[in-house]
Amino acid sequence: MKILLLLSSLLLHFGAAAAVNKNITLRTAINPTEPFAFRDPENNNTWSGFSIDLATLLTEEALKDNYALTFAGDGDSILDMSGDDSLKYISPDCDENCYDIILGAYLQTAQRAANVTFLPPYSVDFLTPVVRSNSTYKTLEEVTANNGTVCSTELFEFDIYDTYYTLLKDGSCDLFIAYRFEAWYRAAMNPELFEGLEVTGEILEDLNWVTIPTNMALPSETAVMLGKWMYDVYAGGGIGDLQEKWFGHKDDDFTKYFPKEMSVTSGIYRNKPQAYQDKNGEWVGIVFDSADSIIAKAKESGVNLTIDIDTSTNGIVSDFEGELGTPTGSLATVSPDCVGTQVYLNAKNGEICHDMILGAYTMNPTRAELTTFLPPYQSIYLTVISQSKFGVQSIADANANGGDVCLWDGSYAFATLESMVDNPKLCATQVECYEMVADGHCVLTVDGVASALVQANEYPGLYVTKEAIPNTEIEFNTFPMSTGLDPTTKVALALWQHEVTSNIDLAMVGSEYLDTGDNTSSTPESTGDTSSGYVKQSGLVTMCMLGPAILFHRYW
């Protein structure tokens, strides 16, 4: 393996003898924050730091999946400014000096999640006391109760912090409030300064999940693979190794920081075989299996996770009228602005807002600007469903013969194929598209292959080609979450989803539904009440929401 790191710019490129099937190049900027990204005067002023090393590990994980991952930048790629100011350069609205990713240290907050996509975190940090090792009083409560002096500052500069460490050693104050990893770093880099001092580890404020931000407009495959590789680094011990290298301490079990009881509310998007009701009216499908798997992983982490699923009229978002009932339109129900909007005010019997939606939502950049996606539970590709085995078998043939092609309005298939179809005919639902093909109103429709094989069972004679439609990519199904969810909840759910899917073939997820034997063409109506009629949980339910992270100058 060869690493090329240009001194005048940032360009990390890895080559290997292993076969590389795909290349991903990220326009990369750096936000200098020691020790996460800084020029090292002891190493020819080259870029160094935790996030630089992390980029190296990501490229190594990419090679294992036969991808060549390149972090590429130039001399103008340095964003030496506040975090919020720098994030505009990876916004989908950026029109000058734009990037795909910023290496550095950024706090994951609900506010920022509305504008950028965060990779899984590489550390959890918080304010903690630094005290003299021989002090009788170690906690903030003990020091204040005994009239001790507490030193703190909202400004982060090493010189300022070092001054307070000196004051602490001299007895001018009895406790200094510092970020844990910063204190560990200074202790590792300057043992003499920290001689006689101790970092207690007491959590004084909300947890801060530290991570790397990326552009929401990244192709879905790039976003999915970056998240996977970040998880692989974490699960393989790479995060702990970097913590040990840069901070002299390892704290890479994030699950111990999750609350013991967590609860999220969820709507449903009806779409067989993803989510549907069987002959007895029970909700079943691939998404419910996935939810069960997440809950099981939470339990392994010692967390009682409840997914409170609303099966009332207001919970089944696919049944809403108009734009709100489309996959993209329904994301309004997990928007932080859901309550108080016209959508909310027009809802039947009130509440339609949820933390997430159990449904097959295909990831794309447009939707990424509206929601936070969990890691995918399934990979899919689009295929053709025609009137018969001897009918029109492709969009090209349909165009050549002037045939109508049914497309589900607002769906991923519609967004992907609209420009390829000469005679599109829009359907309000996916089922309507199948019915129109079966009735001869369209020569074909398109759908994800797993859904197509199940849906075609309902309509004898329809033929699924099983061939991927040319010029389309493999895509991913996942659950949308509100960007306003607290970061710890999102971090936990994403970690458990990664654990569920780490050793399975996403293309095979849901294959057990291809032989359901359930050939009913209709599903029971939803209940009319507004209560949540379906609860998935691993234990007792208590909502535990953490407050917003403290924003000092320590991280961006």
* Distance between the ends: 32 Å
Structural class by secondary-structure content: alpha+beta
Largest sheet: spatial strand order: 1-2-6-3-7
- Please give the count of helices: 16
Q: What is Rg?
A: 26 Å
Low-pLDDT sequence parts: 1-17, 516-534, 537-554
Task: Please bin the fraction of helical residues.
Answer: 25-40%
Number of strands: 32
Shape verdict: elongated
Strand content: 15-25%
Mean pLDDT: 84
Q: How are the secondary structure elements laid out?
A:
Elements: E1 2-4, E2 11-15, E3 22-30, E4 38-40, E5 46-48, H1 50-64, E6 67-72, H2 83-87, E7 101-103, E8 106-107, H3 110-113, E9 117-118, E10 123-125, E11 127-132, H4 140-145, E12 150-151, H5 158-170, E13 175-179, H6 180-189, E14 197-199, E15 208-211, E16 213-214, H7 220-235, H8 238-247, E17 261-268, E18 276-277, E19 283-284, H9 286-300, E20 304-309, H10 342-345, E21 356-358, E22 361-362, H11 365-368, E23 372-373, E24 378-380, E25 382-386, H12 395-400, E26 405-408, H13 412-417, E27 424-427, H14 430-438, E28 444-448, H15 449-455, E29 463-464, E30 475-478, E31 480-481, H16 487-501, E32 534-537
Parallel strand pairs: 3-6, 3-7, 12-13, 17-20, 17-21, 26-27, 26-28
Antiparallel strand pairs: 1-2, 2-6, 4-5, 8-15, 9-16, 10-15, 11-13, 11-14, 18-19, 20-32, 22-30, 23-31, 24-30, 25-28, 25-29
